[in-house]
């Protein structure tokens, strides 16, 4: 976590369990590292949300070119269900 947040920038500076000496970290240092990681994760989520929105706009424009809309899809589905209901009524 410290390496991701930039507190320990090099692997050699990382106080791992194999270190021969014990390192005491201040609470403020740990809190700052957690906050940096939270900010990086929130930036990643913002970027993924924007990318998803752009992708949906592109897909919507492609659907318009194919003359697909929610209304037309819904009307086709209702027509298909009516046909199936009519076929079922004839067989009974």
TrEMBL record:
Q: Which GO terms of the cellular component aspect does the record hold?
A: membrane; mitochondrion
- Alphabetical list of InterPro entries matching this protein: DUF1075
Listed transmembrane segments: 39-58
Q: Does the keyword Transmembrane apply?
A: yes
Q: Which domain of life is it from?
A: Eukaryota
UniProt entry keywords in alphabetical sequence: Membrane, Transmembrane, Transmembrane helix
The membrane topology term of the UniProt record is:
Single-pass membrane protein
Tell me where in or outside the cell this protein is found. Membrane
Q: Which Pfam families match?
A: DUF1075
A single GO BP annotation from the record? neuron apoptotic process
Subunit field text: Interacts with HSP90AB1; HSP90AB1 is essential for FAM162A mitochondrial localization and pro-apoptotic activity. Interacts with VDAC2; the interaction is probably involved in inducing mitochondrial permeability transition.
PANTHER family in UniProt: GROWTH AND TRANSFORMATION-DEPENDENT PROTEIN (PTHR13674), PROTEIN FAM162A (PTHR13674:SF2)
Q: What does this protein do?
A: Proposed to be involved in regulation of apoptosis; the exact mechanism may differ between cell types/tissues. May be involved in hypoxia-induced cell death of transformed cells implicating cytochrome C release and caspase activation (such as CASP9) and inducing mitochondrial permeability transition. May be involved in hypoxia-induced cell death of neuronal cells probably by promoting release of AIFM1 from mitochondria to cytoplasm and its translocation to the nucleus; however, the involvement of caspases has been reported conflictingly.
Question: What family does the entry list?
Answer: Belongs to the UPF0389 family.
- What name does UniProt use for this protein? Protein FAM162A
Q: Which organism is it from?
A: Equus asinus
User: What does the record give as the organism's lineage?
Assistant: Eukaryota, Metazoa, Chordata, Craniata, Vertebrata
């Amino acid at each position: 976590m410290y390496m991701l947040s930039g507190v320990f920038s090099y692997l050699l500076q990382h106080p791992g369990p194999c270190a021969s000496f014990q390192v005491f970290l201040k609470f403020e240092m740990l809190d700052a590292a957690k906050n940096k990681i939270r900010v990086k994760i929130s930036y990643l989520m913002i970027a993924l949300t924007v990318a998803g929105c752009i992708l949906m706009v592109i897909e919507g424009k492609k659907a318009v070119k194919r003359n697909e809309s929610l209304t037309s899809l819904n009307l086709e589905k209702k027509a298909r269900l009516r046909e199936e209901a009519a076929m079922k009524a004839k067989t009974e």
